[in-house]
Amino acid sequence: MLILAPKTTPYSVEVEKSVLTISKDESEVTVTSDGGEVRCSGGISGQTKAAHIILNRNPGLPVYRAGFNQTISELKGQGEINASWSPVARSFEEHVIAFSPASMDVNRFAVGLGSLDLESIAGYLGAPEFEYGELDDYVIGDGPGVNYTLRLRIDRGLERHDSDETRLRVI
Q: Cys-Cys link to 25, which of 46, 58, 150, 161 (CB 3.0-4.6 A)?
């Protein structure tokens, strides 16, 4: 049985390191946190093809150890890069999903009064509608059980890149 309930109080986010730096390019991004929101602002210089600010959410799933990346800002070439992010907090009623692992098939759970597919479950939790078979990554809600990393990545072309990162703590 799986019980899903929304968070009832606002999130707070702590940033481990306040500056992300790529020294050979003299690129620097300042990371601040206030009121449950993370803000990134800085300048990208040097010989770069693109710069990205990437948020990685890693819930520690054994089948996908790398976590899930979300690009929250992208800049082609040089210039100013800015981004903001706040943890996802959904508004939904409490849901209880009960299933027997032995009765699961590829895309279905057996739920109390009948069958329900994964798209329907995601829909009940606020996910946008997807075409059949095209269910994409979707964050039901952020929280303390997930490891968060914010990364500045500078792409140089030919699959070369440099990066710097900091950990975020959602509480």
A: 46
Q: What is the reported pTM?
A: 0.74
Q: How far is the C-alpha of 51 from the C-alpha of 32, rounded, in Å?
A: 19
Long-range contacts: 61-68, Cβ < 8 Å, 24+? 67/147, 67/149, 68/137
Residue pair 68/50 in contact by the 8 Å Cβ criterion = no
Token pair, residue 75, equals 């800049």
Contact partners, residue 53, CB within 8 Å, separation at least 6: 29, 40, 71, 72, 73, 74, 81, 83, 150, 151, 152, 153
φ, ψ of residue 96 in degrees (nearest 5): -115, 125
Q: Would you give the end-to-end CA distance of the chain in angstroms? A: 25
Residues of the chain with CATH 2.60.40: 9-89+141-156
Per-residue pLDDT tens over the stretch 134-143: 555 656 678 8
pLDDT for 111 equals: 45
Residue 129: how many CB atoms within 10 A of its CB? Answer: 7
- CATH of the domain spanning 9-89+141-156: 2.60.40
Report DSSP state, residue 170: E
Let me know: does 125 contact 13? Beta carbons within 8 Å.
no
